[in-house]
Amino acid sequence: MVQVRGLIFMVSTLAVAVLITSWAEAQEFLGPEACQKCHKAEIGVWEQTPHAALFSEFHKNKDARDIVRAVGDRNPKSSETCILCHYTAVIDVSGEPDPVAGPSCESCHGAASEWIEIHNDFGGQGVSAEQETPEHEAQRIDAAAEAGMIWPDMTFDATRNCYSCHGLNNDALDEETATLMLDAGHPINADFEYIEYSQGKVRHRFYPPEISVNQELTAAEKAEWYLVGQAASLVAAKEGLADLSHPDYVAAMETRIARATEALSRVNAGAAVLASPTEANARAFADAIADEDHSAAVSDLLPTQYK
Ligand code: HEC
Ligand code: HEC
Ligand code: HEC
Ligand code: HEC
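Above: inputs. Below: predicted complex with heme C.
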């Protein structure tokens, strides 16, 4: 009955590009330098995050050394398991993953080698973003998403993606390895929730017209992202539980499911995803509540302090 396999099977083609199955197929990450030239403000934020700090700190973490030995590797920076979530790795000349940063731009927006050219083409050589036609823009956005880019307005995919690491939902991580990690004390934080964890150090919202201002979410936007994040948490927890039965993991996922159930039962549109927590239903939920104001329904659930 027990089959050693990835923690989840991603049906979404968008997510498949993010969740790699082997390093041979993984020549997808370019590293944050590929974004630096045009996204200086976002780079500036990211450099101050715990994600960025992992690159210089993680291999010195004493707990990390114990956990890496438990999975049969020696050093977190060269362990293919740890690299999945603690680093952004490019493929070096010998075909091995070479960490170049902690979790970074592409960890959340999708590995970019398939979409960077589409992203940077505004309608032919020499055409700037300002000169792009609306038709070309619409086409470019869709084509990049198809090639694996996670755009900010793909709220379900963007929040679901956090759980590929913060829920151990990575299909390149098999059950046996995940169990060894958890037995050796790898944390699984039941309290991870999108708003609390995204609106502190991680927040980068330099949207037009005020592109020099890192904007806060409005109350309505906060409620929307919170609810979509809870739908993502629910879907990820159910998928994780189908593949991993470690008691610490089960307890954490049950806590998450209880929270999500409380939140989603506050809005009518939540009923379908609660009845059947699939990615398709969660995406439909995200579409249904986009631009609605549910702040009154969930205000008492929203965090007031951010990581
Ligand atoms: C050559 C310049 C350039 C590079 C390189 C570049 N971008 Fe962009 N990016 C832009 C421009 C211009 C926009 C705004 C136009 C648009 O919406 O696409 C943008 C928009 C975005 C958006 C969406 C913003 C929104 O308002 O919805 C994301 C996310 C993004 N880029 C991520 C990245 C990531 C991640 C990388 C590196 C892998 C990257 N970009 C590399 C120029 C660039
Ligand atoms: C599937 C993703 C994933 C993999 C694979 C993974 N980790 Fe983690 N690790 C995380 C996340 C996410 C956290 C933060 C805790 C949380 O959110 O549950 C974390 C936290 C940790 C911490 C606690 C850090 C601290 O500051 O106290 C240690 C230690 C750690 N991981 C070690 C490892 C080692 C060693 C490996 C490789 C054998 C590894 N992890 C593989 C996702 C992962
Ligand atoms: C931890 C996950 C995560 C990381 C790391 C991350 N992003 Fe984002 N990014 C998001 C999410 C989620 C949004 C949508 C935020 C919103 O609209 O509230 C977003 C929004 C954006 C936007 C649109 C808002 C703006 O600032 O103009 C751009 C552009 C962008 N990201 C680029 C980048 C670049 C470049 C990097 C690397 C330096 C990066 N992101 C790193 C998750 C991430
Ligand atoms: C590629 C894997 C990965 C992805 C994707 C990811 N994270 Fe993380 N995140 C980590 C790891 C690993 C840690 C390190 C935990 C540690 O050292 O304690 C971490 C830590 C954090 C921390 C610091 C936690 C603390 O207690 O200070 C925040 C906040 C955070 N992540 C938010 C997010 C959000 C929000 C998203 C999605 C938009 C996201 N992360 C997506 C891997 C990831």
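The chain has 17 helices and two strands.
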